[in-house]
Amino acid sequence: MNQNPITVVIGIDMETDVGSFTPYYEGLRGGTPLLLDLFDELDVTTTFLFTGEAARDNPEVARECLDRGHEVGSHSYQHETVGDPLFDLPGTKPILPHEVYPRIELNTKLVEEATGIRPVSFRCPRLWGSTEVVNALEELGYVADLTYPMYYYREQFAPYHPDPEDWTKQGDSKVLEIPNFADMVMESNDPGLERDRDQWPLFRTKGGQYMLERSLAFHEFCGEKGIDTFLCFYIHPWEFWPMEPSYNFGEATVIPEEFITKNTGPAAIEEMRILIQGLKDAGAVFMQSKDVPALLQERGVNS
What we know:
alpha/beta; 12 helices; 12 strands; 14% strand; globular
């Protein structure tokens, strides 16, 4: 038996275009079918995480994801900051702690209404999670949270059950926290935040082969620590549909940083194909996040 298997969870954050800096769903409606075809071609299963509004306004897309054999989960109600912000983002304010539960509850309701299936996997927008979020997820019956930003906290490198008093520590929550992949081998040039360890969106700005190499380096990192390798990625359907360099809204113009929209469209599909195929060639197994808790129980880990 492989003593350090590679398990991959691809979480697709289903939201408005350009990281919710616009109100449009062109990427969700145009990019999602391209991703579904790619996943069919490469025979991988994934988890699509819808904001409540995205599910409400695009129920046919949510149902298509399910019909094509993938999981549909949640991604907050309006892509709002439900957790603890890690850096300043103008125009974005975190909701108050007492608002967390009702917001996620509404998100859950809208996704269930769109698909007929209650979601059990969640991810906070921008990977900004919190103890309040994890506790709300447990109360609402969720089994997996794909939020923990490994690049920032740098303590948990494999799935774990959080402490109800501090979600970044191991404890006995029923929710399984699945950390997002970060480059823990590189030397960071971003003191404190270390955001340059975060590997999004390097699959399309530096290429699928680059991301494959960094993923396999993390595999070696996990092997040295004696833990199984879990690669949790976050991507968005708008990355696979051409995005504009700027968006005018009458009273203001949004101009995303170049890396946000660089190589969006067909080029991103090709680079994602390289990454997925390379991981498959390395023996990786692709899973939906809702199935990871059972896998760990089977392995006798975190059970």
